[in-house]
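Hello again,

I reread your note about wanting to compare the complex against the isolated chains. To keep things tidy I'm splitting this into two emails, and this first one only covers the full assembly. Below are the input lines as submitted, including protein chains and any nucleic acid or small-molecule components. They are followed by the predicted structure of everything together. The single-chain runs will come separately.
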Amino acid sequence: MLSLRTAAYLEKKNKFLGASSDWENSKQVILGAPMDYTASFRPGSRFAPYRIREVSEVLEEYSISLNNCLDDIDYYDAGDIILPFGNVEKSLALIEEVAHDILSDGKKVFTLGGDHLISLPLIKAYHFFYNDLAVIQMDAHADLRFDYMGQTMSHACVMRRVTEIVGDGSLFQLGVRSGTAEEMAYAAEHSFIFPDQLLEVAGQVKKLIGRRPVYITLDIDVLDPAFAPGTGTPEAGGADSRQLLQMLHKLADLHIVGFDLVEVCPAHDHSDITSILGAKILREALLAY
Amino acid sequence: MLSLRTAAYLEKKNKFLGASSDWENSKQVILGAPMDYTASFRPGSRFAPYRIREVSEVLEEYSISLNNCLDDIDYYDAGDIILPFGNVEKSLALIEEVAHDILSDGKKVFTLGGDHLISLPLIKAYHFFYNDLAVIQMDAHADLRFDYMGQTMSHACVMRRVTEIVGDGSLFQLGVRSGTAEEMAYAAEHSFIFPDQLLEVAGQVKKLIGRRPVYITLDIDVLDPAFAPGTGTPEAGGADSRQLLQMLHKLADLHIVGFDLVEVCPAHDHSDITSILGAKILREALLAY
Amino acid sequence: MLSLRTAAYLEKKNKFLGASSDWENSKQVILGAPMDYTASFRPGSRFAPYRIREVSEVLEEYSISLNNCLDDIDYYDAGDIILPFGNVEKSLALIEEVAHDILSDGKKVFTLGGDHLISLPLIKAYHFFYNDLAVIQMDAHADLRFDYMGQTMSHACVMRRVTEIVGDGSLFQLGVRSGTAEEMAYAAEHSFIFPDQLLEVAGQVKKLIGRRPVYITLDIDVLDPAFAPGTGTPEAGGADSRQLLQMLHKLADLHIVGFDLVEVCPAHDHSDITSILGAKILREALLAY
Amino acid sequence: MLSLRTAAYLEKKNKFLGASSDWENSKQVILGAPMDYTASFRPGSRFAPYRIREVSEVLEEYSISLNNCLDDIDYYDAGDIILPFGNVEKSLALIEEVAHDILSDGKKVFTLGGDHLISLPLIKAYHFFYNDLAVIQMDAHADLRFDYMGQTMSHACVMRRVTEIVGDGSLFQLGVRSGTAEEMAYAAEHSFIFPDQLLEVAGQVKKLIGRRPVYITLDIDVLDPAFAPGTGTPEAGGADSRQLLQMLHKLADLHIVGFDLVEVCPAHDHSDITSILGAKILREALLAY
Amino acid sequence: MLSLRTAAYLEKKNKFLGASSDWENSKQVILGAPMDYTASFRPGSRFAPYRIREVSEVLEEYSISLNNCLDDIDYYDAGDIILPFGNVEKSLALIEEVAHDILSDGKKVFTLGGDHLISLPLIKAYHFFYNDLAVIQMDAHADLRFDYMGQTMSHACVMRRVTEIVGDGSLFQLGVRSGTAEEMAYAAEHSFIFPDQLLEVAGQVKKLIGRRPVYITLDIDVLDPAFAPGTGTPEAGGADSRQLLQMLHKLADLHIVGFDLVEVCPAHDHSDITSILGAKILREALLAY
Amino acid sequence: MLSLRTAAYLEKKNKFLGASSDWENSKQVILGAPMDYTASFRPGSRFAPYRIREVSEVLEEYSISLNNCLDDIDYYDAGDIILPFGNVEKSLALIEEVAHDILSDGKKVFTLGGDHLISLPLIKAYHFFYNDLAVIQMDAHADLRFDYMGQTMSHACVMRRVTEIVGDGSLFQLGVRSGTAEEMAYAAEHSFIFPDQLLEVAGQVKKLIGRRPVYITLDIDVLDPAFAPGTGTPEAGGADSRQLLQMLHKLADLHIVGFDLVEVCPAHDHSDITSILGAKILREALLAY
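Full-complex prediction:
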């Protein structure tokens, strides 16, 4: 069970597809982290957890690619963390505490952001349980700045902070096509970076990681804006949806222990295509990991 | 000539590109079937025939790919069927009657939906004239459910109903990437299904069909939502526009006798890109089939 | 308690503000009826119940105008009726059965449509319990046609059907500014109609109705489209939001037994202003009636 | 009949409500003038004639306010003038020639713009037949500049040009709430201007005009942008739709000989509320003038 | 001159109408404060200063209502404060410091928000110079909560904080139509509140204030969402644009020393009508105060 | 320095990324040409230069692909040409004069349109300085009509006019997938055309051009509308963003002397993806050419 304290931080407004209400038997827990106050360009990703759950009803629970069905597994939708808007420090602490509590009970957390900074407390919580944690980041941006406008806690710096936790050689950056020269230099020393490459380096990444426990953080802007217009900082020239879905399938034989999807921004979406894609990504992740 | 009775069911509000007003010499007839009341998620495809005609003016009448021009052929735009909103049974009967009447006069019908259920009465009418009819369905969804929410007449069941008319081994399902396990099992026994494949199986499909008369039904959601956001139930991970257009060209040496384009939904489109693509698809179909 | 049979027809996806989960103590029940298949122009009102609940969080639970707070009353959100898309007859029967069941337990129903046809089964159910029921309709359209495109069950005919149930002199039509000459003639004989008038005839309407039990059906298009763009058939020249809210307050000393809000259509809204207004209307209705 | 020469300048893409195809018996002719190349801010009004006709189907043909029905009058929809995009001079000449030809046959022209400059050739044509023509302009902007960015033929100068044709004391400017000090000074000498006033000066304007033949030119931006967002240069603070409709009714006992509606811009509209209002305005004008 | 230190906090991206570049002779200074991280519902007001300046070109510099022209006054556009995204405390300090510096040089500041919290540091800076400062707030919401989700620095609490600075009887709240019972009780003791009233209480407010120096803070949501859809928390039932503009004119004979316009949110606007209105409000404020 | 005369034609409203204010040391000059009056379908590209500059802030100044940074080069943003709306002839003359003046000072011009007609005066100016100029056009449309609706100066004819300046064998048309049979015939004789091909013919084009000076004109509609919905005449079936960016990189070893990007139309964009792509294209062009 979630501790009483943690349960009080959560609210359930709607739920993902046919999520179970049986906490005990659920190995996977969906969590919403609607924090977006460090967005540097267009905020609004706070509405992603709600909208992704809403549009999930357009999907089947069965995945043809995986030949597997959500009906056959138990997954719990814990709702969203109630965050103090504008208070970054306290928000990060809350996210970490909730994640820690879920992990204590032996579950995997599948988190819906929010902006990319939410991955930091999640990875912190995971690192407590898995000290050889590897992190796979799929993202258009390196997010390796030391600080952004003087702030070290920003979605533009989140992977820099992550490397400080997981250590050198533990971050794998895929699909990156935007960054500063300084970030590229930092990556050369501290992470494995694969600029503008995704599906084509799956094998290589898997070989490097081996059996280490893996946390996947997926910034939806790794896709070309044609496929994911609903995001805060669209960056032209990325992968397409099919490649991303195939990539997620290819990683399934790694030892995936956690997953998040961040930076979906419904206010800039149209026809809900980014949110619907987000829901499909979450379904595939639940079925595959 | 259309029978007086059928003519009374039709209204012409606008017309496709330079459609001829010469019924006698036209071998091809454009027909609008603005029915969308069985849509399970977002309705609104009733506006597709009007909008597709409207935006057709952005196109040339000449196709570079086909080196052929609409000016050189006669095609008639019969307008839209006036449907009793909300009455599914009567609407289906009307569509079938109009199609039957056009076919009786030796024409081919190129229908603009409406939701996918409109293909049922059209294929019924065709099957009367072509009893060895093969049907090629390009679609993100299998549409093979026995019923949906208790309804057997739904766009989610239309291909199940079609198989009941044309018989086993006569339905070819391309591009399907969403369905239930039951639908997949049904397909395995009753249709030829090519999950998530389109252009790459053109040759195989053509070999299987041979010289049978072919009806093509194209659900625009076979495309990735990036290319066709204006649809009711977008499903991430599909083909791109160019692949679809090439596929249509590749099928041209089959014995195509009928064609429909369904599930374009202008209210969820942006910049009219789905409708403009729909108009281009119709132009290519008129020139190629 | 709701009967088991009725409960099975309902699903809860999200809920309105701080709705209670205590059926017994709740005198008021919110019900969603997401039916829109008889819409003559733009469908999509099926999404209104979900969206209105979603945006309700932008509101306070306290109403300054009424000096009253939702925290101080118990109201239950029963969720939405699961409808067979495209089957009008069965849908109407389901709505009536559910409403009947709620009324049997001595509650008032506050229904969110859906298109205007949903008011028919609701009023039928109410008429069973209140045989001297008066109906106040606020609407841009008379909805008094005998049939529409041959259909007698259409949102364009709903008030004609209602007069057939409640009898002459029991329907009060306010704000009407669109109709045919035939409808106006019918109204002259069978209803009290106040073309293009709302707030200014409150006193007169109240005098005519006296202590009869009253059902209020509010078509959001009674407002000028500036205030409620998110609707299927916008009609220029209506009331503003403040006048409508004041009208709802003025009617509070009538014996209101039921209420519905119909024709909100989120796909044509912008900035959710129509849905947010819808949520405020529902709050005021819950507090006042 | 229209001259052959003029007929060749016209194309019919769709038509307004139940417009007659009987030229001879029609006293009123609808004409589209899709010219928008002199727009100073946002172009796109060229699409207004098409869209206004399209959405006209949402309206009844009967007007409750006027107790009159389009079914009972004959009005002809002549379609749109085919204009040479970008060639202002030639476009103006074409519009004048077509209008002249229609007037020669004793009809009244009801023109849908296009930007406001189209009123110039129309008023020129009218002035030829009615040399004591009075012009009522309802508009947020004075449009009295001598030139705009060096151009004398601009929508920002059109009423200055009109005064040069009809002479001093023949232009009545209502609702104006934007202009330069120079324009106000010019108006003081050459026109009757009623800043920010519309319905409240109806009586005064009618008294001033008496039995002179009147041309009404209605720039949709006379309304507050809440009621007509779909326009090129929205100006906050105007009238509401109901006031405008009432004003049109009040002017009906003048000797109205011509009417145009300009500056509707569908690309900046939402939910088509501006186009639907435009269609209602045209219906009321046809029934009243 | 601005201090070097303050100048370094500012960036100029675009400018308002014909703003002067002559600091010395300018008595009025436009300042952008693009902070929106405490928004409780929809963020995005950070883009308002840029967009309002952009669309200002649609306006004349002359105001018909005031018979006065921006050409005849000198006003300086200082650009936007460069804020550390997500750091509320530091952002507030920066805004206060910049405002203090401008006031030190004897200018008036006209600030474009940003969310409503930006008014707090501005009023702090003003209070330093004017210790009998009165504050007129036009707003749909009371903003008098002690805290919101545990945060005392939130746009929902800003006026509570303001009363703590200016003292009892110095805050005048107009147009308020949303709040909790607690806020109403607080207002009863500490501020003058005029629920749902604006123009009609102008005289009363002016009498109460007399010759005290006045800071006006205008939350655009005081208007009905029809007139200002582009805002974070639209609240149905407010004033119209014309009433607001008249109110601004009526207050001109008070001793106005500062002004801000907050909560314009371009991402939720359409046709830029809220931003264009914002630009007009700023023009009128510059001309009148 | 720019001549005084030319400088007077220009206005700076906002600027591209970190553009230098040092004219002397800048080898590259950004110029906006906001002309869109010859658009045949949807106008509005006049807003592209402003919007592309606005959204450029979402980009890094460093390009990972080119390993090069805008910080390390000097480029000047000259602002936009102030054009007489609606006057095609004079507008073209102004553009040519300004370009000529910039070229006289030994700079390269990087122009943001506007519709495609703006390339004509630019290429005229370039041809004066480079009489063996080759032109690479990437475009969905051939733009080789002799005239359009009787106008020889139209965006649909611009490349025909260009061939008349640069002579046969000097125009290289890539990505073309729309045109008339006449245009194809003209191309066969006068230009090198590569229908529907882009990246795959880079080598061939480069071989044909050799060391001739090259002007690149890029119509954004060369991309599939999924990647660039914000354009006037979307044509389904084009390249994707990544292919286009790679193509721009591949051409870098040619002798590029000028570049323009045309037909971006922000009003039809969504989530600014087309403008953001436009900004990235301009960054890559500045860094590569």
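For quick reference: The domain at 4-288 of chain A is CATH 3.40.800.10 (Arginase; Chain A).

B.
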